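Bug report

Summary: structure tokens for Cupin differ between web form and batch submission.
Environment: batch mode, default settings.
Steps: 1) Submit the sequence below via batch. 2) Compare with the web form result.

Sequence submitted:
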Amino acid sequence: MFTGCAICAAVGFVAQDVSAQAPSGIKRNVTARKDGPIEGYETLEVFVDIEPNFVIDWHTHPGTEAAYTLEGAGELRVKGEETKVLKPGFSWLTPPETPHTLKNGSQTTKLFVTFTVQKGKPLSSPASAPT
């Protein structure tokens, strides 16, 4: 019923190619990319639009995801945490390699996400739903 993080939606997609092909249901706009904060990592700033009722499956990131909800609503599940309701003004942090999923509501949801991830690794990788 739930899926992964809206910005994390690029399962199997390498951070260097973040603006390449977004999965259907998600539109990404990378507005900034910078090496660091330490060697071997890069920081990406991304605006994400998620189509109504779209579900992002369970996934992880090779670094930290910090997200802020600009518009819309949805449900976010993060392993080991209670389900969170996304609404404008809601923000969250997802630690590296932590499975999470997102189920969008009935309208387009717009997010601003900052990823600080290891270079050369997929921005997002599929993960099993926690038991």
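Above is the batch result. After comparison, the two runs are identical; trailing whitespace caused the diff. The longest strand covers residues 26-35. Residues 1-17 have pLDDT under 50 and may be disordered.
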